[in-house]
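Entry 14. Structure prediction run on the chain below.
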Amino acid sequence: MAEELPPPVDTEPALKPVAPPPGSPDYVRRNGADVSGATETTPAAEASKPALPPLVAALGFRGERSKSVTLAHPFTFEGCEISEVTVRRLTMMQVDNLVTARRHDDLYEVFSEMTGLPASVLRGMDCDDGDRIIAEGKDFLPRTISEAFDLP
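Output returned:
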């Protein structure tokens, strides 16, 4: 029994194939690049790629994680009135970032991470307000950092 096939298509197909998105393994070949001399990705090329940041879980902590300090001497920074500063406990990742960037040996840099304000702003604040922020936040400092700055 002979198999009956449909007649051949004489025209261009109406649908064009979907092109792979940039970055996909087949993108270069499908966009006309010569891949005859292409080589596998070398370890050196892999090492030059920026590493993805590690995953950090969002945890629901119990207990006090922040304190707010109302400033006796409010100020304006970048067009915003700052009258209160919130000091937060650091996560392990934040401490790791401070140490990796070698910012852990500057108390203003540590409190910058804890408050979200740039260290330069903390340095420019009124001294009494700065002392109150440090006093309220010292219990939130990791012991190693607290001991390094000899905070009681």
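The helical segments are 27-30, 43-48, 92-100, 107-115, 119-124, 127-137, 143-148.
Filed with the rest of this week's runs.
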